[in-house]
Amino acid sequence: MFKKLRKKIIIYMMCSTAVFITVLGITSYFIVRTNVYKNFVQFSHQNITQSINSSLFYINSSVQSASMITNNNIIIEELKKDEESTIINPILNNVTNSSFGAMCSYLYDIKGHIYQSSNIGYLPSLDAMNENQHIAEFFADEKKSFISIRTSPVFGIYDNIKYSEEGKSEYGIISYIEKIIDEDDSLLGYLFVDINPKKIYDNFFNYKEGDIFEAQSYIISDNEYIKYINHSYNVPYEKIINSQNDTQYILDNKYLVITYSVYTDYTVLVTLIPLSQYRHNMIVIAVVILVLSAIMIIASYYIASYTAKKITNPLERLVNKMQNSKL
What's the CA gap between 176 and 103, in Å, rounded? Predict the structure, then answer.
């Protein structure tokens, strides 16, 4: 007798519950997605800044090595002499070997002499170094020290292996350069302590697939990419070569790109973080929300059926009593 009413109650309650659960599920998904993405970006920034700070500590070891040379009274006295020194090269060797950050070291004095550690060859001339805009600006400036990141000019041989072709290397070099000045503030020469960019990549920016934080970083200096042999993402370099400092954006709908200004005013660290892990997490969350929503809708059916019976059963009993009393 009250079957239609019972169905209407069930349908009404089911529709109301389904709409509520759908709105709740969609709202929950977007709130969770926003928070997960925010945490994903924050976690990425934390990992990158930690790597940058660690690499700066590594570079500072070369700065300390340079100070051992530029503040060495023996070297200063040797550079004041007109004749070429025979004791500077061994000192450069000792300082280079004692530094875990330094790749090699070399010194240009103002008289045209060149001194170098024994593990390099085919060193560019001071005039060739002066052709680099940033090095030339440093030479002409009053600053005492400077960091140069470049692909040329670079020495030709390192540890008996070719490092550059005609003074240019796609793997680049990082140089800490310091002016050697005597007690009268007279310029005596320029000291270069070089750091291998591969060591920076290997030790601080070699995020591997499967790690908690998977990413790939690129050092861009003067719009030139410092190559790293372990780079594997299939990303055309022209898409990242002109990246601005201290920004973040989505590239090709596949990577979160975060950039930082590092080491020099003209060097950018561009880090690509795959969005695949973030999207995988969001799929898992969406499936969980869908499953919970389905369970809630199924449960709501039984609740609606129970409620409908609680409403219609007393009415049926009342109608039956009325019919029986007439009889």
Answer: 11
- Three-state SS at 209: coil
- Alpha-carbon span 101 to 89, nearest angstrom: 19
Q: At what angle do helices 88-98 and 73-80 cross, to 10 degrees?
A: 150
Residue closest to 197 by CA, chosen among 187, 206, 188: 206
Average pLDDT over residues 22-46: 93
In angstroms, the CA 185 to CA 47 distance is 42
For residue 76, the model assigns a pLDDT of: 92
Confirm if 7 and 301 have CB atoms less than 8 A apart.
Answer: no
What is d(CA 68, CA 63) in angstroms, rounded to the nearest whole number?
9
**What's the CA angle centered on 71, arms 69 and 75, to 5 degrees?**
60
Residues 6+ apart with CB under 8 A from 210: none
pTM over cut 0.90: no
For residue 30, the SS3 value is: helix
The residue with tokens 């001339």 is 125
